[in-house]
Automatic annotation (TrEMBL):
Keyword annotations: 4Fe-4S, Iron, Iron-sulfur, Metal-binding, Methyltransferase, S-adenosyl-L-methionine, Transferase
Family: Belongs to the class I-like SAM-binding methyltransferase superfamily. RNA M5U methyltransferase family.
Annotated InterPro entries: MeTrfase_TrmA_AS, MeTrfase_TrmA_CS, NA-bd_OB-fold, SAM-dependent_MTases_sf, TRAM_dom, U5_MeTrfase_fam
Domain TRAM: 5-63
Alphabetized Pfam families for the sequence: TRAM (PF01938), tRNA_U5-meth_tr (PF05958)
Protein name: 23S rRNA m(5)U-1939 methyltransferase
Superkingdom of origin organism: Bacteria
Biological process, per Gene Ontology: rRNA base methylation
Organism: Listeria rocourtiae
Binding site for S-adenosyl-L-methionine: Q289, Y318, D339, D387
Keyword Iron on entry: yes
GO molecular function: 4 iron, 4 sulfur cluster binding; rRNA (uridine-C5-)-methyltransferase activity
Positions annotated as active site in the UniProt record: C414
């Protein structure tokens, strides 16, 4: 293969051809690919190479010679430094088009389908794509003697203080800022990474958009939390909507937010949220969708895809707290779900009991181990819903699915690359009916989608 014609620090003109999976602009210089943060399709820019690899170059914009008509001014003051959003500089209708294109790109790259072989619908967006995130996890650090809460910058370990995050629900911002100021006022020791000293590391806030309940979790470097009583009293007096206050202990030097141990501090140990008609009790570490209004649209699409008659047996693989399975249960004969996180399965069982749903069972364990066990015992599913993490489905699970003769598979994906890889495997026995993209995280490069597969005759 020919060497990269670019050298580090080199400046050169570039025409941006499309947007890549991380929201970056993609162009070609002497047939070598160049990724440019913040550049938009159709723009003519002058860039400077910041990182040169044999197969590609990373570059930054020095000058925009021809601007995209879809370029807008990001409303967030720390947009460039934070890195949490990647597409605020692109108009929202255009973001929806880009997300559809990201799925097309993944199919071109990871499958043997022709792009026009698969029907990809237009992306389902939000009426108001701001203030949608129901959970925040803001790091707490002392910066120049002042307690700050925020996120670590893009590809750095510098804290970017955030006073008002435009994609977070206003309640999470309000609680975070109040608690941050209270930590400073009460002089509670703040975590210091280099020395692994201090106590409060992260403020986690989750709000129930439908219920108004709020859960607050202090992630700390030790079990002790000085002035705990006063801290709790002040929070409960000022914010009665904070119904659950918990402490999670994480003493590891890690980028993971939570440790294994969670302690109850005040209120109740779980908060309640509703999706559709079903109430969910959420413990501090339980996974729950971050954008409930779009999640309801997602589940409506899943239900519509399966074409239920009432007699179906359904598998909900990677079920979490049971949200998809419970949303379908009243319209089918039986649902079985599985997940690797025991707390999620406990929550799922409790959520089913609370909703009075008796035709659903949940099991803790790996989908690729539990599913074949069920099949061996004579269980025959009519439809299988998979909602795997970003790494996609385990091959062992895909092979088991291929052997079941289930009439339909609905694949809910948060990563177009692993989706494309997995549907190429499933295509041995299934036709891809359509892919429906959905914008779960406006202003980011993430794209959620629902792929409907039907058994070949």
């Amino acid at each position: 293969m020919s060497e990269n014609p670019v050298t580090e620090g080199q400046q050169f003109p570039l025409t941006i051809k499309r947007i890549g999976i991380n929201g970056e602009g993609i162009g070609y210089f002497k047939r070598s690919v160049v990724f440019v943060t913040g550049a938009l399709a159709g723009e003519e820019v002058v860039v400077e190479a910041t990182k040169v690899n044999p197969r590609y170059t990373e570059a930054k914009i020095r000058k925009i010679r021809k601007k995209s008509p879809h370029r807008v001014t990001p409303p967030c003051p720390v947009y460039d430094a934070c890195g949490g959003c990647q597409l605020q500089h692109l108009s929202y209708p255009e973001q929806l088009k880009i997300k559809k294109d990201l799925i097309t790109q993944s199919l071109e790259k990871h499958t043997r389908f022709y792009p026009n072989q698969i029907k990809i619908h237009d992306t389902i967006g939000m009426g108001n794509p701001w203030g949608y995130r129901n959970k925040s996890q803001f790091q707490v650090r002392e910066v120049d003697g002042v307690v700050e809460a925020g996120l670590f910058g893009a590809e750095s370990h510098e804290l970017v203080p955030i006073e008002n995050c435009v994609v977070q629900h206003p309640d999470t911002v309000k609680v975070t800022n109040f608690v941050r100021d209270l930590l400073e006022e009460l002089d509670i020791p703040i975590y210091e990474e280099q020395r692994n000293s201090g106590i409060v590391r992260t403020i986690v806030v989750r709000t129930g958009i439908k219920t108004g309940e709020i859960q607050l979790v202090f992630v700390t470097n030790s079990k002790k939390l000085p002035r705990k009583r006063e801290l709790i009293d002040r929070i409960q007096t000022a914010m009665p909507e904070v119904v659950s206050i918990m402490q999670n202990i994480n003493q590891a030097k890690t980028s993971l937010i939570f440790g294994e141990e969670t302690i109850f501090l005040a209120g109740k140990d779980k908060m309640t949220e509703k999706l559709g008609e079903i109430e969910f009790d959420l413990s501090a570490r339980a996974f729950f969708q971050l954008n409930p209004s779009q999640t309801e649209k997602l589940y409506r699409e899943v239900a519509r895809a399966i074409r239920l008659t009432g007699n179906e047996k359904i598998v909900d693989a990677y079920c979490g707290v049971g949200t998809i399975g419970l949303s379908l249960a009243k319209r089918v004969a039986e649902v079985r779900g599985m997940d690797t996180i025991a707390e999620s399965i406990e929550d799922a069982k409790a959520n089913a009991t609370r909703a009075g749903i008796t035709n659903i069972t949940f099991e803790t364990g790996k989908a690729e181990e539990i599913f074949p066990k069920w099949i061996k015992a004579g269980f025959k599913p009519d439809a299988i819903v998979v909602d795997p993490p970003r790494v996609g489905c385990e091959d062992q699970l895909l092979q088991s699915i291929l052997r079941t003769n289930a009439k339909q598979i609905v694949y809910v994906s948060c990563n177009p690359s692993t989706l494309a890889r997995d549907i190429q495997v499933l295509a041995k026995r299934y036709n891809v009916k359509y892919i429906q993209p959905l914008d779960m995280f406006p202003h980011t490069a993430h794209v959620e989608s629902i792929t409907v597969l039907t058994l070949k005759n």
